[in-house]
């Protein structure tokens, strides 16, 4: 992978004092990464016991203070709160005069660009949207995972160099996202990462029900290969009974899921329909096999409208 060249230490911008508003899983990790680059975390806010422990682990000796006090102490402020809480937080901080002219205010929401920071801009602050495309655990391993992590970056033109420098110093790679594209960008990441966790957890549950003692060991190589193939080949990596048009197999799957895990049926059918559409569009699913398969999916696997569905035109299993 071609990585952005690391800046020469002598060309680095001045080291900054860093504050974190919201000591969840993301903020302390990013502050710790900035500390490795020479910046100095000076304050964080967090109220839950988990936040206090997390900050103590990743940012030892950094005091926990109210949000307004974080802004009073820091030149660079990381707003790492849930998406729905961000607009109200920004407005409140700006209205109370907590934002100083020239202060860098960074949020890490994938959903929002810099528009949500307009109150910061009006107060003279410098707004940046830096979203790490990474899932966080709230432990020190997150700092290591930032190496090579892509960040969805939205920034005013005059702050693009500052945004790029901060991302690179955290070990990441900047990807520039237009303001209007932020919701779509975030939806794509959620579709891939969040839904993947659900799919894997459901698959592990089903394997346990089927008697598999180590579902993680069974799925690890399979899912690793599937992910690698998908990233390399896109739809060309599609395989399995839906892509082959094995309507009978799919119907059997749905029957078993209804018996053992009825809550998974709707998701299975939805993903199978999406897979069939993509397989058809890319010539992987034969049209003569698609009719029976789509019939199974349309009727929820109850067998209505299905034909043989498990062999190709030559009477062989088309694997």
From TrEMBL:
Cite the residue spans of the region called Disordered: 300-319
Residue ranges of the Putative oxidoreductase/dehydrogenase Rossmann-like domain? 8-132
Q: The organism sits in which domain of life?
A: Bacteria
One Pfam family it belongs to: DUF2520
User: Taking every annotated instance into account, which residue ranges of this chain make up the domain DUF2520?
Assistant: 149-275
Which PANTHER family does UniProt cross-reference here?
CONSERVED HYPOTHETICAL ALANINE AND LEUCINE RICH PROTEIN
This protein is called what? DUF2520 domain-containing protein
